[in-house]
Amino acid sequence: MQETLPIWFLVLSIFLPRISLIAAFFTDGAFPHLITKWVSVPMGFLIPRILIVWAIAATMGFCAWFWIHLVIAVLVFLKSSITVAEKKSGK
Question: Which of 26, 49, 56, 74 has the fewest C-beta atoms under 10 angstroms from its C-beta?
């Protein structure tokens, strides 16, 4: 039997990654902590989407949820990079 993450976590983390990580942090039985909580808390604030993609890959492998989250993470990163570049150029 393949281990899986809760569906509420997978759906919520697409739209609200930090909130889903906070909720998963407080539901110890529902979320497998890949690394110690002392490390996952700072990572959740700094790079939540990377931590979520890592959790999906480690728990469920390279399934459809992994690819959905990876594409969303790349799109969000590119959008924020473009926004910062436009602000620096004065547009």
Answer: 26
In angstroms, the Cα distances linking 46 to 41, 62, 86 are 9, 23, 23
Q: How far apart are CA 48 and CA 28, in angstroms?
A: 18
Q: Which residue has the tokens 């902590």?
A: 33
Nearest 5°: the CA angle 88, 16, 5 is 135
Residues sharing a CB contact under 8 Å with residue 10, sequence separation 6 or more, in sequence order? 56, 65, 69
Q: Flag whether 48 is in a domain.
A: yes
This prediction's pTM: 0.81
> Helix, strand, or coil here: 36?
coil
The 10s digit of each residue's pLDDT in 33-65 is 555 566 666 777 788 898 889 888 888 889 999
Number of domains forming the structure of the chain: 1
Residue 1 lies in a domain: no
